[in-house]
């Protein structure tokens, strides 16, 4: 990693995450996030199996590691009908097969924070999502006590649309989550009475489907992408009071 005492003016570039990033990506996640991700997750990221990701690297490093990850963002494409925000989108019956981009994880190593790297990574996600006409929004979750992350996403013009009680479960404790949405391609939230009624109807249809599935299966069955979202978009600094010395929360970068 970068020597914090050395004078250094980094030159940051952004590229897709690739198989050679596997080890460093796994190490950074272990250092930054309060849960441990399965090996399958990292294999999916580096091989692009259902996950779209970007890496930040410092090509001006003097230690020869100028292609080593110093920041990353991982995302997954979600069909609108399988998401939890279908009711928050403007109703448009002419659009079929609509999708969303969900941010799974976002992180920057300690010595490269506060250089705008996290901002640039999120902008890469928004640019990518905007290029797909069927994409209606980018969305993510933030743990409710993390004011720096909340401020960061508000600055990025994400809209705080919902509070989800007991969304996170970390070291035996439940924590609420805030749901943030960045609307794209006409996907803004409904505003007319007819659109609001359509959104409410969509919400209750989705709730009915979820409850029906839960009753049929005996327990909640989550789609594959959901298992990655417990610590989504965590940009972290240590917080011993809440999570313990080895754990972390968001920080803006």
From TrEMBL:
<keyword id="KW-0012">Acyltransferase</keyword>
<dbReference type="GO" id="GO:0120518">
    <property type="term" value="F:protein N-terminal-methionine acetyltransferase activity"/>
</dbReference>
<dbReference type="InterPro" id="IPR016181">
    <property type="entry name" value="Acyl_CoA_acyltransferase"/>
</dbReference>
<dbReference type="GO" id="GO:0004402">
    <property type="term" value="F:histone acetyltransferase activity"/>
</dbReference>
<keyword id="KW-0156">Chromatin regulator</keyword>
<dbReference type="InterPro" id="IPR000182">
    <property type="entry name" value="GNAT_dom"/>
</dbReference>
<dbReference type="GO" id="GO:0007059">
    <property type="term" value="P:chromosome segregation"/>
</dbReference>
<protein>
    <recommendedName>
        <fullName>N-alpha-acetyltransferase 60</fullName>
        <ecNumber>2.3.1.259</ecNumber>
        <ecNumber>2.3.1.48</ecNumber>
    </recommendedName>
</protein>
<keyword id="KW-0159">Chromosome partition</keyword>
<feature type="domain" description="N-acetyltransferase">
    <location>
        <begin position="12"/>
        <end position="185"/>
    </location>
</feature>
<dbReference type="Pfam" id="PF00583">
    <property type="entry name" value="Acetyltransf_1"/>
</dbReference>
<dbReference type="GO" id="GO:0000139">
    <property type="term" value="C:Golgi membrane"/>
</dbReference>
<dbReference type="InterPro" id="IPR045141">
    <property type="entry name" value="NAA60-like"/>
</dbReference>
<comment type="similarity">
    <text>Belongs to the acetyltransferase family. NAA60 subfamily.</text>
</comment>
<keyword id="KW-0808">Transferase</keyword>
